[in-house]
Amino acid sequence: MAKHKLQPDNWVDQYADYLFNYAVSRVSDAEIAKDLVQETFFAGLNSAKNYKGDAAERTWLVSILKRKVIDHYRKINSKKGKAEVRINYNSDSDAEGDWLEQQVADPYSQDGDNVLENEELGFAIQDCITKLPKKQALVFRLKTIQGMSTEDVCNELDINPSNLWVMIHRARTALMGCLNENWY
Predict the structure, then answer these.
(1) What is the pLDDT of residues 167-179, one digit of tens each?
(2) Could you give the 3-state DSSP secondary structure of residue 166?
(3) Backbone angles phi, psi at 83, to 5 degrees
(4) For residue 66, is pLDDT > 70?
(5) Residue 31 has pLDDT above 90, yes or no
(6) 155-29-66-136 Cα dihedral, nearest 10 degrees
(7) Cα(first)–Cα(last) distance of the chain, in Å?
(8) pTM for the predicted model, two decimal places
(9) For residues 40 and 24, is the Cβ–Cβ distance under 8 A?
(10) Could you tell me which of 61, 67, 76, 64 has the C-alpha nearest to residue 29?
(11) Can you give the pLDDT at residue 143?
């Protein structure tokens, strides 16, 4: 296999459009996509000494960009994760939603949140997610927790939309069963 050499002076001309299109398809925001591409170029320059030449330059840059996209969602979800602990599911309530994601505690409620109970529920949900089959847990996290579009999740995992929704339904059903068994 021929070893590839990095040519950072040509990155913007050769790869910026491709990387931008890749990023915008993952994050659905042009400004964030531009930032991610720029971060990718900086990371590529900073880690150029680690480049072994086994992969093509573009492939190597795309792998860096993939990690930047994942980091972007982790950053968003670390903020979202703090709100998720506020989930307050009560099967006896008259709440509108049928699923956990729709049973979020109202931050303006006059009832006062039971912080300890909600924190325990957050841990119970995370524990139940770890008990799901790996692909089902991944699909649930990407679609429901990270809020990725159906198309992006299907492309990322090479599945069709019908398969995705079956996995989401099974994950939700399993999570509800797990919570009913382990948390109540």
Answers:
(1) 989 998 898 888 8
(2) helix
(3) -75, -30
(4) yes
(5) yes
(6) -40
(7) 58
(8) 0.45
(9) no
(10) 76
(11) 86
Q: Is 2 exposed, middle or buried (0-12, 13-18, 19+ CB in 10 A)?
A: exposed
Q: DSSP letters along 14-50, please?
A: HHHHHHHHHHHHHHS-HHHHHHHHHHHHHHHHHTGGG
Q: Are 90 and 50 in contact (CB under 8 A)?
A: no
For residue 178, what pLDDT is reported? Answer: 86
Kindly state the DSSP code that residue 174 receives in the 8-state scheme.
Answer: H
Please give the torsion angle defined by the CA atoms of residues 164, 156, 80 and 71, in that order, rounded to the nearest 10 degrees.
170
DSSP three-state, residue 83: helix
- The better pLDDT of the pair 76, 52 is held by 52
Whole-angstrom distance, CA of residue 56 vs CA of residue 3: 8
Q: Region 59-86: what's the mean pLDDT?
A: 74
Q: How far is CA 180 from CA 28, 83, 128, 168, 171, in A?
A: 36, 21, 11, 18, 14
For the record, the structure tokens of 162 come out as 């019908």
